[in-house]
Amino acid sequence: MNIILLGAPGSGKGTLSEFLCEKKTFTQLSTGDLFRDNISNKTDLGLRAQEFINKGKLVPDSVTNSMVEMYLNNKKKDLIFDGFPRTDDQALALDDMLKNLKEKIDQVVYLDIDESTLMGRLTGRMICQICKRSYHKINRKPLKEGICDFDNGTLVVRPDDQEDKIKIRLEAYHNQTAPLIKFYKDKIIKVDANCSPVELYNRVEKILGS
Ligand code: AMP
């Protein structure tokens, strides 16, 4: 089963993917994480993507689509698409890629969240440099300050989690990504994401079944 998680930055896609991968047999495909890995490894793709990411803008479709296509050569099923697709062009490209692999998207889970919650979530966020787990300075504190509970990795604030960048990212979400709700109208399931990560997982698990 392949699932897309669709929702604004800060709606809980990353943490929900973490839980789904821990408790079920999914693998998370996070384009944001893949870009960040490429940036830390200073690859050509990372260098191209970095200028867009640091401004809060979307990376061009051609770059993003080829990165996903490469990923799908190794792992093609039981995927959770976290942060991809984010544009019509990406959604069409994903359809083609999956058709070639005789796979498909089974469900699209739309995390519906109040805009007023997002800014607080994103400005307090910290990410483990090693496993990419997400923490929050108020809502999801690590046991030891600045250190990941799972692998002792250092927690860092993402450069694009600054208020001015968040505004640009939310604009990109509204203009380019939210229209995908219509694109996937036959497969979409809307979930109220104004809740804790555990509650969100429970809500989604009920929908997906065992
Ligand atoms: P995320 O970790 O999903 O919040 O993504 C962080 C940033 O990576 C985004 O703000 C974009 O700059 C870039 N990015 C991630 N996924 C995509 C995508 N599907 N298309 C274009 N840019 C993306």
From TrEMBL:
Binding positions (AMP): 31, 36, 57-59, 83-86, 90, 158, 169
EC number in record: 2.7.4.3
Coiled-coil features, chain-numbered ranges: none
The protein's name in its UniProt record: Adenylate kinase
Residues annotated as domain Adenylate kinase active site lid: 125-160
The reaction(s) this protein catalyses: AMP + ATP = 2 ADP
GO cellular component, one term: cytoplasm
Gene3D superfamilies linked: P-loop containing nucleotide triphosphate hydrolases
InterPro entries, A to Z: Adenyl_kin_sub, Adenylat/UMP-CMP_kin, Adenylat_kinase_CS, Adenylate_kinase_lid-dom, ADK_active_lid_dom_sf, P-loop_NTPase
Source taxon at top rank: Bacteria
Cell membrane among keywords: no
Location(s) in or outside the cell: Cytoplasm
GO BP terms in the entry: AMP salvage
This protein's pathway: Purine metabolism; AMP biosynthesis via salvage pathway; AMP from ADP: step 1/1
Record's function text: Catalyzes the reversible transfer of the terminal phosphate group between ATP and AMP. Plays an important role in cellular energy homeostasis and in adenine nucleotide metabolism.
HAMAP family assigned: Adenylate_kinase_Adk (MF_00235)
Xref: SUPFAM superfamilies: Microbial and mitochondrial ADK, insert 'zinc finger' domain, P-loop containing nucleoside triphosphate hydrolases
Binding site for ATP: 10-15, 125, 134-135, 195
Keywords annotated in UniProt: ATP-binding, Cytoplasm, Kinase, Metal-binding, Nucleotide biosynthesis, Nucleotide-binding, Transferase, Zinc
Naturally occurring in which organism (per UniProt): Spiroplasma cantharicola
Statement: the UniProt record of this protein carries the keyword Transmembrane helix: no
Subunit structure: Monomer.
GO molecular function, one term: zinc ion binding
This protein's domain notes: Consists of three domains, a large central CORE domain and two small peripheral domains, NMPbind and LID, which undergo movements during catalysis. The LID domain closes over the site of phosphoryl transfer upon ATP binding. Assembling and dissambling the active center during each catalytic cycle provides an effective means to prevent ATP hydrolysis. Some bacteria have evolved a zinc-coordinating structure that stabilizes the LID domain.
One protein family per Pfam: ADK
